[in-house]
Write a structure and sequence with these properties.
Layout (H helix, E strand, L loop, with lengths): L2 E5 L2 H8 L5 E5 L2 H8 L5 E6 L8 E12 L4 E13 L1 E2 L4 E2 L1
């Protein structure tokens, strides 16, 4: 399965790990157009929050990618959270 890595803000990271956020949005830009053209769904999305160690990160399955031209963004439909590191899921904050 292919793997794509990206950064994300803390509030959205928290919602994804808690399974409250089921769709992640990315603007339609050449970077994402090229990345998404090279891979097939389903694929793994590795999301990272922050730059200082220990960095909270999670790996999520993306089941579908939809191009919403009206809103000018890609919709990445999220499936199961495969793994997470340096994150306390019960408290919803970094370890």
């Amino acid at each position: 399965m292919d793997l794509v890595t990206t950064t994300i803000k803390r509030e959205f990271f928290k919602e994804i790990v808690a399974l409250k956020k089921r769709v992640e949005y990315r603007e339609i830009k050449p970077y994402w157009t090229k990345k998404l053209a090279l891979i097939k769904t389903p694929f793994l999305l590795r999301i990272i929050n922050g730059m200082t160690h220990p960095i909270p990160e999670a790996t999520v399955v993306v089941t579908r990618v939809r191009k919403n031209t009206k809103r000018r963004r890609y919709e990445l439909h999220l499936g199961a959270v495969r793994a997470f590191k340096n994150w306390d899921r019960r408290r919803g904050r970094p370890r």
